[in-house]
Amino acid sequence: MEKIKKAIAFHKKGNYSCAEKFYLEFLADNPLEGKAHHLLGCMYMQMKNFNAAFQSLQKAYELDNSIPIATDLALCAFEIKDFKTAYMHLKDVVQTCDNKVLYDKIIQCCSFLNLPKEMLNYSIRALKFYTNDIYKLRDIAALAQDLQEFEQAKTLLLMLIKLCPKDYVAYNNLGLVYEFTSDFDSAEDAYRKAFEISPNLDVIYNLSILLRRKKKYNEALELLELSKQFDCNPEKYKHSFGLLHLFQKDFKTGYKPYIDYLKVLQKNNIDDNLWWSGEYNENASLVICATEGFGDIFMFSRYLDFLDVAKFKEVILIVPPALHDLFNFNFPGFKIVNMGKNVVYNFATILMDLPLIYNIDFEHIPSTDKYLIAPPEYFKNWKDFFNKDKLNVGIFFAGNTTNKRSLHNRKIDFEKLKPLFLLNDASFYSLQPEDTYGEACMMYNVTDLSDKITNFSDTAAIIENLDLVISVDSAVAHLSGALGKKTFLMLPYSADWRWFDDKDKCSWYGSVRIFKQEQEGNWNSVIAEIESEVKSLCAKEINSDTL
Q1: Of 140, 178, 185, 180, nearest to 160 (Cα)?
Q2: What is the pTM (predicted TM-score) of this model?
């Protein structure tokens, strides 16, 4: 015991070389003495020799997994950037040690390990340490917002505002949270308060978008014009200006600035000097990039028929691979090339530019009945799959929700659709391409087709063999309309511009019937109305079979 006493005495005096000598001599005789390994590890940490410290502390933890040793091992692991080990031990430590330093470390570990949910959880648990830290509260609120934990974000932002009543950033972010949760009136109040405290571009754009969603188009336009006083991004202005007019079905004023903005996004793909403006050249190759979202590609592919491909050497249509077979069959005059392949061309444009090139406005939308067909080989594969004794209904309820503003626009909780699935005379088939809803489908006797859908040719063939498609705003809804299939489209109160302010009838597709929310975020009336319509269709099906 004399050696360990000398080691500790030298350690306390800061004579680390002598302390190390006696620690090592003692451990040579007593290798299972966890406390000595722990003390040696702590000394190495004081010496900034973290690799040696880590080895000693690991050995100490193997012999004695107490909280003090776990704490020092975690802090040492953090120093050598072994965040996985640090996180593993800190998880246990913070259960018993309510310490700001430890919470700071585990929150940083979560950040380095890309564990956002855990990061938020520990940030909330450590909130009492940050109640007066405006920047920390902002960061936690932003994280909650990113994770769509909107109630938590709201609570944090209100804390911020109480702490700093003139925090316009907090009011702006609070407006976003209210907007994302469909509370438009509260969102408008928060944005206006932010603007009152500090007029700035972020608030102007957010308030302008909200007013547009509330269909207050003139007010939204006034705000947008105000943005010019704040050195606004001209491309962002064009986009917002175009959208405002497109929502009002104003092709003449809105479509060109909107398309100009989309062209800017293609600047890395298309040479500025090679944009096609409508002229024909039999010695030239024209490329049309159909690389927008799938829904837009289906919607605007109707304009391809206006292009006389014989007046070019060749016309190349670039599409995502999932569309190759479908477009290869439907547009035989075009050379269909998968996105990502290199092509040589003389002129190029994007698919959505065609209405502008041909000056076809929204009052004269062509081909509103049917302009796409499933390839025969795909149709044949699905012809005998469905139950002929019931109304066969395809359902698509979860589209792209990466944009938080459209989070509630393109997705309906599966549970809300339960009244439809309980209809005895209808068979429902999920058209979701992913299998994440497999268990829910089984629970409600909905046939999940995700493992059988390989591309959009399969989806098209399935739709053609169905009696009805019910969908949120999605590529499936557009495809179903383009195929001329009876479609019930479920839209939010503030729908995408492509649907204008249409109610019931759809400007783009004669077979699509619109069911729109009466109040933002409330799908109940939409689902109830569709349930009634499906019941009527089932009754007609039964009567026709009887006759």
Answers
A1: 140
A2: 0.86
